[in-house]
Amino acid sequence: MNKKRVYLFGNKKADGNGTMRELLGGKGANLAEMNLLGMPVPPGFTITTDVCTEYFEVGKDAVVAMIKAEVEAAMKATELAVDGPKFGDAENPLLVSVRSGARASMPGMMDTILNLGMNDQAVEVIAKRSNNPRFAWDSYRRFVQMYGDVVLGMKPVKKEDEDPFEVIIHHMKEQRGVTLDTELTTEDLKELVALFKAAVKENTGLDFPDDPWQQLWGAICAVFDSWMNERAILYRKLNKIPAEWGTAVNVQSMVFGNMGDNSATGVAFTRDAATGEDIFNGEYLINAQGEDVVAGIRTPQQITIEGSRRWAAAQGISEEERVAKYPSLEETMPAAFQELNTIQENLENHNRDMQDIEFTIQDGKLWMLQTRNGKRTGAAMVRIAMEMVRQGMLTEQEAVMRIEPEKLDELLHPVFKKAALSAAKPITKGLPASPGAATGRIVFFAEDAEAWAERGEKTILVRIETSPEDLKGMLSAQGIMTARGGMTSHAAVVARGMGKCCVSAANSVIIDYKARTLSVDGLTLKEGDWLSLDGSTGFVYAGGIETQAPELSGDFGELMAMADKYARLKVRTNADTPRDAAVARQFGATGIGLTRTEHMFFDGDKIIAMRQMILAKDEEGRREALKKLLPLQRDDFYGIFKAMHDLPVTVRLLDPPLHEFVPHDEKGQKEMADVMGVTVSEVKERVESLIEQNPMLGHRGCRLGNTYPEITEMQTRAILSAALDLKAEGIKTYPEIMIPLIGNVLEFNAQKAVIKATADALFAERNDSIEYKVGTMIEIPRAALTANQIAESAEFFSFGTNDLTQMTFGYSRDDVASFLPIYLEKGILKNDPFAVLDQVGVGQLVNMATQNGRSVNPNLKCGICGEHGGEPSSVEFCHRVGLNYVSCSPFRVPIARLAAAQAALR
Amino acid sequence: MNKKRVYLFGNKKADGNGTMRELLGGKGANLAEMNLLGMPVPPGFTITTDVCTEYFEVGKDAVVAMIKAEVEAAMKATELAVDGPKFGDAENPLLVSVRSGARASMPGMMDTILNLGMNDQAVEVIAKRSNNPRFAWDSYRRFVQMYGDVVLGMKPVKKEDEDPFEVIIHHMKEQRGVTLDTELTTEDLKELVALFKAAVKENTGLDFPDDPWQQLWGAICAVFDSWMNERAILYRKLNKIPAEWGTAVNVQSMVFGNMGDNSATGVAFTRDAATGEDIFNGEYLINAQGEDVVAGIRTPQQITIEGSRRWAAAQGISEEERVAKYPSLEETMPAAFQELNTIQENLENHNRDMQDIEFTIQDGKLWMLQTRNGKRTGAAMVRIAMEMVRQGMLTEQEAVMRIEPEKLDELLHPVFKKAALSAAKPITKGLPASPGAATGRIVFFAEDAEAWAERGEKTILVRIETSPEDLKGMLSAQGIMTARGGMTSHAAVVARGMGKCCVSAANSVIIDYKARTLSVDGLTLKEGDWLSLDGSTGFVYAGGIETQAPELSGDFGELMAMADKYARLKVRTNADTPRDAAVARQFGATGIGLTRTEHMFFDGDKIIAMRQMILAKDEEGRREALKKLLPLQRDDFYGIFKAMHDLPVTVRLLDPPLHEFVPHDEKGQKEMADVMGVTVSEVKERVESLIEQNPMLGHRGCRLGNTYPEITEMQTRAILSAALDLKAEGIKTYPEIMIPLIGNVLEFNAQKAVIKATADALFAERNDSIEYKVGTMIEIPRAALTANQIAESAEFFSFGTNDLTQMTFGYSRDDVASFLPIYLEKGILKNDPFAVLDQVGVGQLVNMATQNGRSVNPNLKCGICGEHGGEPSSVEFCHRVGLNYVSCSPFRVPIARLAAAQAALR
Fold it and tell me: Which pTM does this prediction carry?
């Protein structure tokens, strides 16, 4: 038995239905479904997505031969359904549209050919039958242009090149002295058709096809070809759509909204796509064809009276003027409107989601051309989902599953005002390292950002790359732009933690610190010039752009609470300050999964004591400096523990290579020499001795604690003293001490012994004690490979997937910009592994370590504290392998909570 | 039933035997065995190694209580066997020795207490019975000193502190105006005993124990305690001896070689320990106790007449003088000698190995005190093994297993002349990065090493660290010393490849390039001063030390051929030049497992073209430079393939980060600017843009080939052109193209496609073709984790365990010196993982990748080309996991061949 390759629809009957998106594409499935729902849809047929796959397997000719009989039969059935015109008929020709239809709409693919079947004979017949020659010739002209552009490949590849047909129209309008297309006469249109056909001949060497069947096969094949064009491939890559899905082709009898004043065409939404409000809304044009609505030549009118009134009020148009010039469809064609309104309600109820619909009214009769789930803003997404729950249209679980976690980000960060943005043109693009919009004046140095902020100036901190020393400046700036680094560079990680906008890896920008300028493509900006960043897209704009703050609705809170009901995975936060901890708590974090102690050392006097510790010649010198650091560190922990009272706080012991803390400039070295009473050259020598070839793989993490155990002692004492002090105040704390960069169980045991001895001594001194846990980061491949050994003495594992990704891939996150973009472009990598957890490689280690660790220690608590902890697909992975929690930046907490719920429901 | 804890021996009977080394220790087992062989051994007993383990489990008192009855019974049996004196008897006291006896002899442990049982009563009786009061008091004096030092802990911990007993002796000799101990009178010795006992009282607060049983238990416990002393623990760590082995204690009745001129003591070897010659040899002293032979106060005499004559000839002593002053034992005590000679023959035949024996002659009667397998030089090891095969004493397999692979190294490299070395004192110690000895004049720059070598000067190249630019200088120098880097730093790896002596990580050396000096601990040496390096120990000496070249005997070749018969694992070499390839071939390499192409680029004009390629702005510029490189690279490969004709050669495509090739100095940048016709600042900017934070994890390996495929094209063309040219000359080649740093199968596939396309084009051009393979390094953890994917398209895997170790541990081999020594010292690491493959972590990945790779590609050829390929325990691991070959530096090839054979036989 032959496989069915062509599916009919029309007259409230259809071979397919709405569940068959995979085979018929979204558009085809919905056209079938609308028929089955008894809605008026122009008859036609859908060629399946399987045929597209076959097309690339066996080639064009074989596929055409394979489906020829079925397509011809389907056309016969369509003719029967429209009852009158016939495809290619001399007396009463049937015109059709040809549209692509993948499972999801995809830019870059051939979209639509209208009026197919038109030729020199047909145009005359249609002119006569419609009694509207201009309509007939305009349809012909449009068809030749669309077909020439899309099917015959005359649309220029580069955007800046002009469409050859537009050049011809432009030339004619100049000759005629007119400005609008509509001012061209029927004779002009006839001449245009002739000129267009000559252009086709000149460009392609071929005559324009007059035969409707030849036209049809050309269009069908062009749809398939467009599935493999560059833009479509790129889009699929970006949106993770497999090439095997293929596209369907929809061939549908034409209806005309441009047959006179009793005809119209329009688009509508069943709810407001911007706000989510439950109100039917949309736009239409009388006597127009689909493309005119979006072309912007005429002002589209609102569909409902209420919508029309709101629109007029916003435009400052009086009710009188509105009724006269811009009446709603509800007013101009009440019958058609009522039918449409009933249909839209039915469609939303049937699909249980906000619908985006297209319709045409031909001679007073409503035809539905398309329905699909409508795109919406993050705010609308939340409101629609929650209202549908309240309206009983969705279960809570369904509502949770409907939310796109990444879209919540929009709700949490400032954005550019739409109007302000539309006037701006980006000067370059980097990586969208930390979302939100920021605008301010350019500074190149962290201390300037601080100083300018003190006098009330908004700044954008522009750096080649940032380092921990820039921390306070980053906090003072509105946003950060770096020329180097990737999605997990210092700037990116820290900015995300702060919820601050950051664009990283703006490779084409050249920064001159001396001249205090940045230049890009010939444009030079200097300190103090305004700059704007979109950290959600990576675009950088010269000049200031007005931003607006996010607003969190009650729906948002309800949604989050609902999500938590279904999630198994807990969500903690990465926070280094009481401020971050408080923000994360507001966003629903159930503890801190990672407090990095190193950032604390850059604050005030601490850096001096810290440097003294590092530059000390021996243990005695280090102990002296550590004595100064102890009370300061204790205060840090006191603040964080207090903000996170009653919840667990994981504190990571000192992790980065020491050279990150020491002064590399003459001035700083002089200062340290004075403080320490040694010569500048001694300081310099020590600083130089700390330089490493590959600091990421150097003397850091527990290697510091194991070579200088006195650091671990000090930090343990600071952590537990703070906890004891809070206990005395009646505040509960749950400190978890985390040892970084373990690769060998003996490293862990040695550090644990130091911690335990210090704790025991402290508890004895204070005659009081507190429960605490000692665990480890799993961030070195060898730790994952020997997890069964480490879990025998560790109480928890926290996967540091940033470092684990670095070492599993052998990628330095600071240097990856030189090849990662090319890898993504060539498809060697599907995702940036620093943004989306690599489940096959890195994930294998995470899974292995979790299972092996629990095999010897069933109570082992496992979590993740890399940047992946806030990325939905990675959160789902964490759920699947059975982790206990994920930990992420404060501003990613809601996203992770939702992703955790979805993972549990999936 | 009680476990037996004490084993008797004496009068040709014994509870134990020679196979019971684990329980009785080496010494105890051999004493038992010699009894069973009917040899004269002073009776005694052995307390087992199990008791030592119990000692550390249950404590001293419990253990003493546990074995008291058994020890007392054993002492009774011993008294019975010696038939006369009794332990602690007033009339005829039995003296005993107490010696430790682990499975292998271990420095740092308590070795020997002689004359135990001596006290104020016993000394008088013995003086009377022996009619030799001086002997009796000397024995007493010695006992108090030994017991005080070892059992009572008075031996100073630091070497530079003086032994309190020696201070007393020294003081007395000064008072008496004598220089030799033997010049002290009996009265002096009596006074010494009194002074010694007073010193004990002063030091320990306790009276010296007079009770023989108290003495005995003290000595037994001291042996056990010494098992856990610091030096013993360190030694066990270095030699991988588990603490659980424990030590036995041997208590044996004393015999005296110092009872007069008919008594003697000596040590002997059944073959020559230096050369391996099959000749009985050794030294003895008349009227002496064991320790006198080694004390160097009197000149020991030779045992055989032949040995004595050879010795005299070497010393320029006439036969008359020899016979008068230094007669052999064969001459002085012919009967005892004959008995000894028979015993030594029997011992060697029985143990089937060269024996190191100790004996004492008391009053004309021979007593055997010890026999064990003798230590020997590498040359002796080979000769003895091969001669024993020819003599029918060993099978071939046994002979192969007898060889210590690492010891072969001695045979392959120059060494210091012994006499010259004894006068030299090391000024510092680094890592023994590449074995052999070297002496020469200090230079600090590679170009100086070249220039000085041209005028015939021997040099030592001293650098903070080396880089590929130093290659030619390294080749010109006798040896290389670096202040930084580890066992797999650039200098170490390259030097080992060259077979050139290198000491790396000489941390305490401060190098001043500007002043051209190095200083260490206050000593400053300047350019041109002589320096000597021992790359096998890491010692560095000021001044020149004469070296001697290695000599390879016929036995060596036979041994190697014999080993190959039993090995399954093939041994290839890492070689980058025809010279290296030829050396390795001589050493028996069966192909090249790794040719690094990057070293080639530093030669002559190539570096200019290479730099031009790197500094080029675009693909076109790169292609132009690559065109210049192509013929030069082709010549490189031509030479290597020719040297390795008929054997496979694996060529790794360009691997290191590009910044390693570009000029970082003004002069070099100027030169490139001139060559390329651009400004110096353009060159500088490009050079700076190549700087990476962590170059090891940066833009290198296949990331270069995937971003600049034209490099891969050029190298493929060069490789295959060279092979085709050789084919035309009738020379067979088997090129294997290896893609480095793969972490993702798509990276591999993309490079393989480039290689295949280039090969197809070349073969078409030349109208000829050649077989070649395309495979990959597995050196990124992710490659090992996804080996099942990669093996679907790769034809071979070569484990790059250097990089795999770096990334699995997260250790930069260039920076590891800051913590690795401390980790080794603290026992956090048992071995340097760059020297000895970490089987648990890195090995797990190697095993996983091999099994998973072969599961999809059963013919997958797997090898290892990291530095571990020449390390015996790592070679054994490679055999166990089923690799096809190991590849190592040319000079490690014999070691690897032997290790491969041993692994197969084990």
Answer: 0.83
Q: Name the residue among B806, B829, B845 with its Cβ closest to that of A744.
A: B829
Average pLDDT over residues B244-273: 92
CA distance B901 to B570: 10
pLDDT in tens, A353-410: 999 999 999 999 999 999 999 888 888 999 999 999 999 999 999 999 999 998 898 8
Residues 6+ apart with CB under 8 A from B549: B414
The span from the CA of B470 to the CA of B490, in Å, is 10
Q: What is the mean pLDDT of residues A174-189?
A: 87
CA distances from A387 to A352, A494, A559 (A): 12, 36, 11
ipTM above 0.90? no
Taking alpha carbons only, the member of B507, B480, B475 closest to residue B491 is B480
Three-state DSSP state, B618: coil
The residues of A that are catalytic are 490, 865
Highest mean pLDDT among A171-175, A826-830, B575-579, B769-773: B769-773
Q: For strands A112-116 and A248-253, give the pairing.
A: unpaired
Test B808 with A741 for CB contact under 8 angstroms: no
Cα gap A868→A886, rounded to integer Å? 9
Q: Quick one: which of B107, B112, B49 has its CA closest to B236?
A: B107
Determine, for residues B692 and A815 on separate chains, whether the beta-carbon distance falls below 8 Å: yes
Alpha-carbon gap, residue A77 to A842, rounded angstroms? 55
Phi, psi of B135 (to 5 degrees): -55, -45
Using CA atoms, how far residue A471 sits from A432, A461, A498, A690, A704, in Å, is 20, 11, 10, 22, 23
Does residue B595 sit in helix, strand or coil? strand
- Contact between residue B154 and residue B206 where contact means Cβ atoms under 8 Å apart: no
Identify from B489, B514, B655, B694 which residue to disrupt to test chain A contact, counting A C-beta atoms within 10 A and taking the largest count: B694
Pairwise CA distance, residues A764 & A758, whole Å: 10
Contact B719, B650 (CB under 8 A): no
pLDDT for A1 equals 47
The amino acid that residue A897 corresponds to is R
Catalytic one among B501, B865, B878, B888? B865
Q: Mind telling me how many Å the CA of B470 is from chain A's nearest CA?
A: 17
Contact call for residues A776 and A798 (beta carbons, < 8 A): yes
Phi, psi of B776 (to 5 degrees): -140, 155
B769 vs B689, more confident = B769
Cα–Cα distance between A866 and A800 in angstroms, integer? 5
Is the pLDDT score of A183 beyond 90?
Answer: no
Question: Would you state the pLDDT for residue B1?
Answer: 47
CB burial readout B177-188, b (16+ within 10 A) else e: eeeebeebeeeb
CB contact under 8 A, A819 and B780: no
Edge-to-edge strand order for the sheet containing B523-526?
B510-512, B517-520, B523-526
Inter-chain Cβ pairs, chain A and chain B, closer than 8 A = 169
Q: Sign of the C-alpha dihedral, residues B742, B744, B746, B749?
A: positive
Candidates B697, B746, B750; nearest CB to A815: B697
Q: Closest approach of chain B CAs to the CA of A834, in angstroms?
A: 14
The secondary structure of A379-416 as a DSSP string is: HHHHHHHHHHHHTTSS-HHHHHHHS-GGGGHHHHS-EE
Enter the DSSP assignment of A693: S
Helix (H, G, I), strand (E, B) or coil at A759: helix
- The residue behind tokens 């010292």 is B825
Q: Which of B237, B808, B813, B831 to mutate to test the interface with A (most CBs of A within 10 A)?
A: B808
Rounded to whole angstroms, the Cα distance separating A880 from A195 reads 63
Task: Assess whether B888 carries a catalytic annotation.
Answer: no
pLDDT single digits (tens) A272-299? 988 899 999 999 999 887 666 655 567 7
Q: Band of the pLDDT at B241, cuts 50, 70, 90?
A: confident
